[in-house]
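Our collaborator T.R. sent over the components below with a one-line note: 'Predict the complex.' Nothing else. No constraints on interfaces, no templates requested, no preferences about which chain binds where. So this is a plain run: every listed entity goes in together, and whatever single assembly comes back becomes the starting point for the next discussion.
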Amino acid sequence: MSEPLFDRVALIGIGLIGSSLAHNIRAHGLARHIAITTRRAETLKRAEELKLGDSYHLDAAEAVRGADLVILCVPVGSCGAVTKEIAGALEPGAIVTDVGSVKGAVVQQMRPHLPETVHFVPAHPIAGTEQSGPDAGFRELFENRWCILTPPDGTDAEAIDRLKRFWEGCGSTVEIMTPDHHDLVLAIVSHVPHLIAYNIVGTAADLETVTQQEVVKFSASGFRDFTRIAASDPTMWRDVFLSNREAVLEMLARFSEDLASLQRAIRWGDGDTLFELFTRTRAIRRGIIEAGQDTAEPDFGREHGRHEPERK
Amino acid sequence: MSEPLFDRVALIGIGLIGSSLAHNIRAHGLARHIAITTRRAETLKRAEELKLGDSYHLDAAEAVRGADLVILCVPVGSCGAVTKEIAGALEPGAIVTDVGSVKGAVVQQMRPHLPETVHFVPAHPIAGTEQSGPDAGFRELFENRWCILTPPDGTDAEAIDRLKRFWEGCGSTVEIMTPDHHDLVLAIVSHVPHLIAYNIVGTAADLETVTQQEVVKFSASGFRDFTRIAASDPTMWRDVFLSNREAVLEMLARFSEDLASLQRAIRWGDGDTLFELFTRTRAIRRGIIEAGQDTAEPDFGREHGRHEPERK
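Returned assembly:
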């Protein structure tokens, strides 16, 4: 890489995504200066200990001053308030973007506060782990992942292109779509799966006939994978569901309808209905492996145990 | 290991579990002779090519003749028919066991056919991957995993102990419980999670507003893990749901009730209810990691891609 794409990047929020971006900007020389701001002094101090940036600010407005790229890495529900806070300090010509998992609501919350002089290009990197905080970030998080941009009609093409190159610099492939379509797609591939995972872990915790200790002990048989998803950041996910309400409720209604029909098949011993669905779902899995979104390796959840047997 | 625990083991069925057992019996010297039998000539031939056993039989009765351990590794729904087929050829004193994910129904189906002279000790190794067939097996599958035995009241203690040592020889830790309790535990930690995974993959496939290609493309955000589970063997899982009907329907009813209440919280913007659940589920995840049933490593599904970036 010859010239950095940006002079000064302001990262607002330094959790999993913010800190992973910091690692990327540094490693790939995407900007000359990384300004980090976050609400909690303790988190900011930790970011400094980890040497994630070049300057550290408790005042968000101070961080964005002079920045030609401003990235909001905060839960979706905080985007509006943060934008209001920084609006007056934004440089004309700056690109303002976010990393939120919902786009319609983010656009609604941020846009009214933004001056006409900046380029607003909402973004959503489809990457994450169940971990959070400044220690959770790592450089490879965005590699081979999709990043969806949802620029409003009439957005400056050059600004879109620069942000696209930024995400490509982090290893991602960029896709452009409308906020509404983004929210529908994510409702089914991400939001409803997370809700279901949270829900079954809750159902299991509340049982009287099976102890929580038994649930933990025998979790290897499917449940374990749900608990991983259900360990995701509670604030972020609360905001996602409240902000993408319509699409989530629509997908959830379909899910429940389909589940009721499987329940009926089980009750009446209709094995053919079950078998037909279970066969159909295998084809989708093959599609995902062929698309390089996962490997065909069997996952039995014990990468370490496999080579260093530790008997209990 | 000094003396093999068994003289001749008959493996009826040579899929993921059967072939993994064959690898274990050989590697740990658990028996002198491995007799393999399976219904399809093609599968039997493949088992022979893989050198999984010492003798190969299309006739199950022939395989069990002279065996002091007979393990049914067939889908739960076939256990009754197979038991009927081998009953007359079983040696007095032989231990007859299975590996089915449901125990109440298996006991009901197998027991009536078994002669009084054999020891019937149903078993369920809690281990598996989403793959199936004789090629899918590997030695480490049972390592550090639980194996649940559900011997009927009055079963010979020496027989239970021998089978326990057999599973310990495969690397598992053995737990003993009643068939009914087993079926309740497994309904919540395994059967319902699988049903839900199958269901959401089906719901996603049926959408008109989001294409299947989009679902595959953006699956990294949660959906992908469900497709892995939903790629499990259709016949095995159909039988599981039909055989553990009561417990599955009971757990499913609770799951749907809980989901309806989350749906209501989303509709009415009740963030506290969501946040409270999402926080509670994290504790269960910690329990699972502390119990050594999973690692805390973030899983973002691309072990290979991480080191050998393959851009598409």
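Summary for T.R.: Chain B touches chain A through 119 residues (CB under 8 Å).
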